[in-house]
Each structure stands twice: as C-alpha cells, then as structure tokens.
Amino acid sequence: MKRAITLAAIVLGIVLIVVAIVYWVEPAKSLPGFFPGEDSHSTTHHVKHGIAAFLVGLALLAFAWFYSAPKKTKPAA
Amino acid sequence: MISYWQAIVLGLLQGVSELFPISSLGHSVILAQLLGWNISANSNFFLTFLVGTHFATALVLLGFFWTDWVRIVKGLGRSLRDREIADPDARLAWLLIVATIPAGILGLTLEHKLRSVFTSATSASIFLMLNGVMLYGAELLRRRAPTDEAGDPDARIAERVGWPQTGAIGAAQSVALIPGFSRSGAAMGGGLLVGLSNIDAARFAFLLATPIIFAAAVLKLPDLFGSTGDGVRGQTFVGAICSAVTAYLAVRFLMRFFHTNRLTPFAIYCLVAGFASLLYFVS
Fold first, then answer.
1. N or C: where does chain A have the smaller number of CB atoms within 10 Å of the terminal CB?
2. What contacts B112, CB < 8 A, 6 or more positions away?
3. Which of B83, B104, B219 sits opposite A69 (nearest CB)?
C-alpha cells in the first residue's frame, strides 16, 4: 500500500510539472481541450495556471520523498 | 497616472498597513477616494506601483527575520537530506511551505476576479469593518492566552501549529485579496485560534508573509520593467523606499507591541475607520 501511494504521488507530481511546462510554453489556443483555460481564440500564456500546477506537483514529489523514507529506529537509552 | 507626491503618501501608507492587521489595499482604495485621486485598485499603473512597494516590504521582512530564515532554510535542507522532519527549524520550514501552497494557489486563481469585483471604496469600507469583526472574533474565540513564554519562539510555533491548521491559516490569508481584509490580520487571528500567543502569532504571520509577498512581487516584476511600467517607474522607486522605511518601523513596533498587547485596538480602529468612511461615501 505504501509503495502504491508513493508511486501514485510521484507519477501525479511529474504529470503536474509537465502540465505546468505546457502552460508556460503553449498559448491558450494550443492547449489540449481538457486543460482549464483553453481558448481557441486566445494567444496569451496562462503563466499562473502553470505556476499553480508546478507548486502542487512539487508538493506531491516532496510528499513521496518523505513518505517513502525508511523508518529510523531510535537507539535504546 | 500617479504623481510623486501620491507615490510618497501611498508608499508610506503601504509599508505600515501591509504589516499592521488593517488591510493595505483597503486603505489605499479608501484614501485615494477620500483625497479625490483618480487611482483605481484595478488600474495597471497602480498594480505596477504595488509591485515595487510589496517587493520593498518583503525585503524588509526578510532582513528583519534574517537569522530565523537562515535557520529555517538550514532546517529544510536537513529534513530533505535525512528524509524526516526531526527538529523545530525543519518543522517550521515545512509549516510555512504547507501554508504558502494554498495561499499561493488561491491568490493566483482568485486575485484578478476578486480585485475586479470589489474595487469601490464603499465595499472596501464595509470589508474593513468586517476585518475588525474578524480580529475581535479571533481574540474572543482564542483559547486561554499562553503565559510565561520563554525560550525559542520559532520552536514554540513549530510545536503548537499542526499541519491542517497551517494549511487553514495559509488559505485564510487569501481573504486579503478583497480590499478591506488584512492578510496579516487573518494569519494572526488564525495563529491565536490555534493557541499561539499574540507575539508568536505576529511572528508566524510575518514569516508567512515574506514568501507570499515576494512571490506576488516577483511574478509581476516584468510589468514594472515592461511597457506597463512606462511613466510609473520613478514613482514606484520612490514609493518603494517610503514603503521600506515605514515597513521597518511597523514590524519593529509590532514585535514590541504584541509582547503585552492584543489585536483588539486594531479591531476597534478597523470598525471605526470603516464605519466613518462608509458614512462619508454613502452620504
């Protein structure tokens, strides 16, 4: 279970970072139809959407990093 | 456009009201209307001007809490290296990150919409009164104020603030996107509700403010140096210096004030100032 959650967080984190890059490099008219902010007549870049996706992606990767850490045993007193 | 005189007044006001829990944006909107200045909170030149004053305020906060930030960044590095959050500095670093994420996302998505809806001085007056109610409510609803606080304040904050609570405090800061509500007021009020003392709540609010104000300013820096900054760059520079001076005095004052005082005087001020300006604008 722990492995599956870690894997899901990593995959989702990477996907969101890729989504962020797409938002930054593609104008609104070239975004895939299922992306929020897609507008076939607009040439603006949704920079803020990209930043939001990037932040959440980083947060998921950080979660996976800590969640998958091996348990440390405290030395006996 | 904005004159140098207006830039000085608004810069001085911005530095104080950004850190006092009384809404900087609300005060800018109300003051501009009271003085008959043709400055809209939604106009490009005003937003560009705010970039400079916000950047200056963030620099002052960073400098004032420099030793805290060095410890926080080192704690963050240690926690990433060891893959555990083992000490108060590391915990405080992650508390700030967890609080900044919802604040950042809500700010990015709602800023333009909220600012374009609530631009009038009348609505800012009403929200300033509600800000007073929020501050007073936080003082009323707080748990018993901790006494005999000794030791490291950052460690106390890290111990008392939980993960869901820091997320909620971070999200609550977004209320400041509405002119009249205060970001630092929301953060301080949230800090009180989770059991921090006034001084620790203020410290947590100022630490939380630094990355958010920096990020908002950096995001809009291209506006200042692009075509929208034409004709307002000099005024922005002057306003930023004025803002830095008053922000430094404000944070110094508040860190002493909250040792022995509460949010109540600010709540009363917001209620009275909001009510008086509302009466003026509707009459």
1. C
2. none
3. B83
Distance from CA of B168 to the nearest CA of A (A): 16
Q: How far is CA A74 from CA A71, B86, B87, B154, B168, in A?
A: 10, 12, 15, 25, 33
Among B76, B78, B80, B105, most A C-beta atoms within 10 A, so best to mutate, is B105
Could you give the number of structural domains in chain B? 1
Residue B147: φ, ψ to 5°: -120, 170
Q: pLDDT tens digit string along B179-202?
A: 899 999 999 999 999 889 999 999
Of the residues B76, B96, B101, the best mutation for testing chain A's interface (the one with the most A CB atoms within 10 Å of its CB) is B101
**Residue B272 above 90 pLDDT?**
yes
Residue at B119: amino acid letter: T
Mark B95-123 as b/e (b = at least 16 C-beta within 10 Å). Answer: bbbbbbbbbbbbbbbebeebbeebebbbb
Residue ranges for chain A with pLDDT beneath 50: none
Q: Which of B85, B101, B109 sits opposite A59 (nearest CB)?
A: B101
DSSP state of B21: T
Q: Where are the beta strands (DSSP E) in B8-159?
A: none
Q: Which residues contact B8 (CB under 8 A, 6 or more apart)?
A: B238, B239, B242
What's the first-to-final CA gap in chain B, in angstroms? Answer: 28
Report the C-alpha gap between B143 and A9 in whole angstroms. Answer: 37
For helices B4-19 and B44-64, the axis angle rounded to 10 degrees is 50
CB atoms closer than 10 angstroms to residue B13 = 20
Please give the ipTM for the structure prediction. 0.71
Name every chain A residue with its beta carbon within 8 A of the beta carbon of B219: 47-48, 51
Q: Do B83 and A65 touch (CB under 8 A)?
A: yes
Q: Which domain holds residue B60?
A: 4-282
Average pLDDT, chain B: 90
DSSP one-letter code for B202: H
Assess whether pLDDT exceeds 80 at residue B16.
yes
